[in-house]
Amino acid sequence: MSVAVDDLLAQARAADLGDVAEKVFAAERLSIADGERLYATPDLHALGALANHARERWHGDLAYFNVNQHVNYTNLCNKLCRFCAFQRLPGQDGAYVWSPAECAEKIRAQLHEPVTEVHIVGGVWPKLGYDYYLDLLRAVKAARPEIHVKAFTMVELDQIAKVAGKPLEEVLPELVEAGLGSVPGGGAEVFSERVRADTYHLKISGEQWLETARKVHAAGLRSNCTMLHGHVETPAERLDHLDRLRRLQDETGGFQTYVPLSFHPENSEMADVPGPTALDELREIAVGRLMLDNIPHVKAYWILMDVPIAQLALSFGADDVDGTVVEEKIYHEAGATTPQGVQRGELIRWIRDAGRVPVERNTLYEVVWSAEPELAAAGGPARD
Amino acid sequence: MPPGQDGSKALAAQHGRTPFGAVAAPSWEAPRASAERAGPRAGEIRRVADRVLDGQRITAEEALLLHDHADVATLGRLADAVRRRRHPDRPSAEPGGAPIPAVTYIVDRNLNPTNVCITDCGFCAFYRRPGAEGEYVLERDEIYRRIQETVDLGGRQLLMQGGHHPYIKTEWWCELLRDIGERWDINCHALSAPELDHLAKLDKRPVEEVIRDLKDAGLGSVPGAGAEILVERVREIIARKKTSTERWLEVHRRVHEAGLRSSATMMFGHFETAAERVEHLARLRDLQDETGGFTAFACWNVQPEGVPDEHLYPPKTTPGVYLRVQALARIFLDNIENMQTSYVTQGLKMAQVTLRFGCNDFGGTMLEENVVSAAGCFHLEPIQEIEGVIRRAGFTPLQRNSWYGIVDPRYEGLERGPLNREEAATHRAAAGVSA
């Protein structure tokens, strides 16, 4: 064993995580019981160092970002999730639906920027017909043909199939034909039925979310996956969630990136729940990296975590910080105080100061730019 | 000095400064964690790390090695170990009670009697030249009103600092300190080294005498401001008219010898090199070996937005650099007991993280002027928020005084530490006074 691994093992043993460390070194899968110990350990540094070991095995010093923009086409939603500050019903203050043309205008407004991806998500609103979604995709692609459209969470896809009146398997190729390139990871929340019954009972169940993701992957589309943490869920419920994600990944291999989403309480019905602290967020990144041994990327989404924590997360298991974003609405309704967008140069600076090599990627993790193109093209050691 | 651009010239002229427009900030690249682990310095870094974990002092060269080649997580782990050694869990006052992993803070208020200043630091947005628009000197009534408000809220400390006013002399301060002492039981943590130096110049007498008079009038402790970077090359660029490195250290030496404690600071992220950061820390550590008078150290990166020389400063350093420097300070300054986080500059989230990167103290609550009166200070929102952040990091928040003695009514039985400046005075300093 190398000196570094030796050191890390000693550190893990001191935290009573020696056996977990040995599994990590041997790239063996961690059990749920292992995961419980990772959530329970007071030694955040030992946990972070283990996650960092896994992260560096996947990616070395590479850290990914992209130049993207968000389009949140409507905030009308009938799911009434209690944790959400973004949703509106018709007639409520601030309720809006953007037409496909208006969405295309948002795209055209950024034509001077080197945007490679648009992230399109919105509320679930049954009055929007199937054509609306198809037109939205077509309008965006017409405005910027080379842009990658990452659109519609599993929850929205379920709704789109409903309004289309046909199975998702038939809908997906039509969405792809209209311009869909991949699918984001939102709407998973926590798969626990207990939490869903209490907090978002109108939303599709965990099983339905996973089944939808399975169909997305079967249609040849890649997606992300998420977990909303820091509200009323227990560590056991989080581990169940992570385990179900990795089992689906064993089956499909379709998840590119896992994104832990920090609950932001402000302006929601759950404003009395404090939400995760910075140290909780770092722990979530680390546990996610260690449990999800088959998902290539773990993202520290700076919009939610705030820049300092996202930057530090690059040493606690994360290898991606998301992108320039331009106009984020969902979390800013929930009191996020981060800027709504950031300059590409700033992202590069954060990553460099974290001791990582910035790599601008496209949605499918092909290298768009890096100051060290050879290193970026080679990827991390795990790809050897 | 190289000529500045036209804009900076005009601005500098307006502020009575020589422009330094063409001075470049040194470039620095964070070490690559994975590459360094396999690189030629890995063994050396490990040896230094082992010495830190073993409780040994590291040299300036070793500190520079860590600064430039250790990854931030390693620095954090080492700093956390040093913090745990210096601040082990406190024994509970209850028989059989669980030990208390403590993080301290003080209920205090900033009170800046004047913003008039003739020192013209280009990184300072607070000061006004004499006669400039917006200059002020607070009336006594206003000072009293703010103190009463602070005392009503359970405040323990007034952090009084201000500009280097050309006409406000030691006697003005002595009168103020005496009047406060007659009216309230609250510590005046006041007058940083450059202000004391300024008073000595106005009085045309040694700074020891100024310190003696202020102490007699009731000065309780001295803040660590104005250190910036204690390297002349850097001070020449950012604070030409301010107290020199030698003088800053000399004033603190005199403060300690007078039986007063002070704190130390560092403002980085402008024109200093990594070696100069370490040099700054080494100067502080050397003086502390000599006097033992520093209670605490705090650092932050320069906040260039909106300051007079904003256009001349490099972009603000990122949080990762702050964390690196803060952790290194905990590792290197083995003789300074307390590390204060800087939540005012870094935000509460980052401040919580620093509690695992070497810091054991949250600094002051800096109650704002418009704080509404409340039944007790524990119910004030900012205090509750600070306590929540500390608790959720796994620590027990304890209120302290200016000398880091525990004055928390919820924990009456705890070992308290110094309760006043006399109890806090360092042994060597006391000997110096009696000699």
Structure description:
The complex is a heterodimer of chains A (384) and B (435). Chain A has 384 residues and is α/β, with parallel strands linked by helices. Chain A has 17 helices and eleven strands. Chain A has a four-stranded mixed beta sheet with strand order 9-1-10-11. The mean pLDDT of chain A is 94. Chain B has a single domain (105-431), classed as TIM Barrel, CATH 3.20.20. Helices cover 43% and strands 11% of the residues of chain B. Chain B has 17 helices and ten strands. Chain B has helices at residues 6-14, 33-37, 42-53, 60-69, 72-86, 140-152, 170-183, 193-203, 207-217, 232-238, 245-257, 274-291, 319-332, 343-354, 381-391, 421-424, 427-434; strands spanning 102-106, 108-111, 157-160, 187-190, 221-222, 261-268, 294-301, 338-340, 361-364, 396-399. In chain B, strand 3, helix 7 and strand 4 form a beta-alpha-beta unit. In chain B, helix 4 (60-69) runs antiparallel to helix 13, helix 8 crosses helix 9 and helix 8 (193-203) crosses helix 11 (245-257). The longest helix of chain B is centred in the middle third of the chain and has 18 residues, at 274-291. Classes of the chains: A alpha/beta (384), B alpha/beta (435). Chain A binds chain B through residues 2-4, 7, 11, 42, 44-45, 48-49, 52, 56, 60-61, 274, 277-280, 282, 306-309, 311-312, 315-316, 349-350, 352-357, and chain B through 29-35, 37-38, 42-43, 46, 71-73, 76-77, 80, 315, 317-321, 323, 346-347, 349-350, 352-353, 356, 388-389, 392-394.
